[in-house]
Amino acid sequence: HPGGEEVLREQAGGDATENFEDVGHSTDARELSKTFIIGELHPDDRSKITRPAETLITTVDSDSSWWTNWVIPAISALVVALMYRIYVSED
Predict the structure, then answer these.
(1) CB neighbours of 57 closer than 8 A, spacing ≥ 6?
(2) Could you tell me the pTM of the whole model?
């Protein structure tokens, strides 16, 4: 889903019609949604549905990934700079 999996998880087991309308989907999205609609639930059966237990959304601990965001690019830039300097000095 282009809006992310959280959007789907929040609506899991429920009627997402109102939320779908509130977002203001494009004409293409509306046409595409028609291919996924398999029917409507009878109003008498709607009360029988129980909402699933809250789903667990795993997030990445930002403290543990700081080095991947800064150290690896810095080392990569250093290696590229050294390779460029060696290449230029050989000419």
Answers:
(1) 6, 9
(2) 0.36
